[in-house]
Amino acid sequence: MPFNFASLSRFKPDTFTLALLVAVAVASVLPVTGQAAIVAGDVTAVAIGLLFFLHGAKLPREAIVAGLTHWRLHLLVLCCTFVLFPVLGLAAQPLALAVLTPDLTVGLLFLCMLPSTVQSSIAMTALGRGNVPAAVCSASASNFFGIFLTPLLVGAFIVHGKGGGPQLDAVLTIVMQLLVPFLAGQVMRRWIGTWVDRHKAKLKYIDQGSILLVVYTAFSEAVAEGLWHKLSPQLLVTLAVVCCVLLAVVLGLSFWISRRLGFSREDEVTIVFCGSKKSLATGVPMAKVLFASSSLGMIILPLMLFHQIQLMVCAVLAQRFARRTD
């Protein structure tokens, strides 16, 4: 049977992933430094605030209220996201420290403490013939609770584990840069929600532009600190393998748990996709607020790699789910 090259298209990186690679490449060749870096940092802070304002404005409260009746599914998704992932990350920490650098290990732990994605979770659930309304609710709830839970988890298991608790100024920064804009977006949704929903396709460029700006400034500083002297090809391959193993374990456990708890096939698809993903859109700006700039490039690298792996693997899974017979 002739080889079907079209089947390889599902493994092709998306446009945004390619843009991330370009941002890393530009930062490697033309890093922003000096006074320009200070200005870029201020612009990035404003962009992060705008990003979380739009997150709040786009989050439909109606979807969360409507989905409360399916609380078992949503509770399981939240447990996969904020309990299972962190437990696996903490359990794997000794092994990760043996094969990765300390900053990459912190990045792996941070990845485990992030909320789920919204757009791709819903899209994969729809493609896999899952429970789409439940996916909307679970993914939205995950992002809402992540605003509170991720900083708490980082403070308890990463910052505290390195010898100190979260400082008051760090907490205030989180509140001012993440929580206040998010809540402002939720309040303003009453007046701008219709406009935001109608222009989602255009507003995504603000989301993506903010993330690209954070990535560029983070890798600029990392390059100045000697990133490419610390990160060998062998280390990058090892990190990719670790991300693949982590994703495989979570996918397997989420599927097994949902089956054992007696969920329907449609609900299983929703749980698997919403419970196994991590949000790049939320994670990169959060990392900018939570961690020191000097180590930011290495810390967000596991998330960037995991993001692409999860998209490729879940695209294949969604197509397999779609072909099932009920």
UniProtKB/TrEMBL annotation:
<feature type="transmembrane region" description="Helical">
    <location>
        <begin position="296"/>
        <end position="318"/>
    </location>
</feature>
<feature type="transmembrane region" description="Helical">
    <location>
        <begin position="75"/>
        <end position="100"/>
    </location>
</feature>
<feature type="transmembrane region" description="Helical">
    <location>
        <begin position="235"/>
        <end position="257"/>
    </location>
</feature>
<dbReference type="InterPro" id="IPR016833">
    <property type="entry name" value="Put_Na-Bile_cotransptr"/>
</dbReference>
<dbReference type="InterPro" id="IPR038770">
    <property type="entry name" value="Na+/solute_symporter_sf"/>
</dbReference>
<keyword id="KW-1133">Transmembrane helix</keyword>
<keyword id="KW-0472">Membrane</keyword>
<feature type="transmembrane region" description="Helical">
    <location>
        <begin position="170"/>
        <end position="188"/>
    </location>
</feature>
<feature type="transmembrane region" description="Helical">
    <location>
        <begin position="106"/>
        <end position="127"/>
    </location>
</feature>
<feature type="transmembrane region" description="Helical">
    <location>
        <begin position="134"/>
        <end position="158"/>
    </location>
</feature>
<dbReference type="GO" id="GO:0005886">
    <property type="term" value="C:plasma membrane"/>
</dbReference>
<dbReference type="Pfam" id="PF13593">
    <property type="entry name" value="SBF_like"/>
</dbReference>
<feature type="transmembrane region" description="Helical">
    <location>
        <begin position="37"/>
        <end position="54"/>
    </location>
</feature>
<keyword id="KW-0812">Transmembrane</keyword>
<protein>
    <submittedName>
        <fullName>Bile acid:sodium symporter</fullName>
    </submittedName>
</protein>
